[in-house]
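The protein record quoted for completeness.
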Amino acid sequence: MKKGWKRFLLLLSLGMVVVVGGLYLLGLTFHQEIHDDIMIHASDERVWQILTDYSHYPDWNPYIRRASGELKSGAQLDVRLQPSGTAPTDLQTTIVTLESKRKFCWLGHILIPGLLDGQHCFTITPLGANTVRLTQSEAFSGMLIPFLTDSLERETPRGFTDMNQALKRRAEQTSHNILYAVGQ
């Protein structure tokens, strides 16, 4: 009986390794992308300043409620995401792209890499004098995607839209006040 028990545990362990390994490999094929664009009547410099000033996120940002860390490529960024009506999600992310006044991306994982990974990007595209397009996007991958599709498709876009609109209001209000102050 003891020998049979050990064999059973060995086969069970081997089976779990095969299943988990297979799921991990399948997870590499599950992808989902979400994005939201908004036109903002403000300079790229002003939009970048608001976007990268984490200390003021609680004042205006309805989606990313908190962020802290050094603004440099490779640095860790601690982020709290909370689309309206949901519980907060705290993430430790790594800044993977940083192009001043143009692009800012971080990569985060839920629990372990491969389970649910997300590369979150903000892209600022100048459209003319004091007008930009802000694109917020997230490329998800991992084995949990089939189980989270409804949540990702409902909550994430709502969070993006809410944040983009709030950033637009903040940038345009500030830009209007600056232009009015200098008499333009």
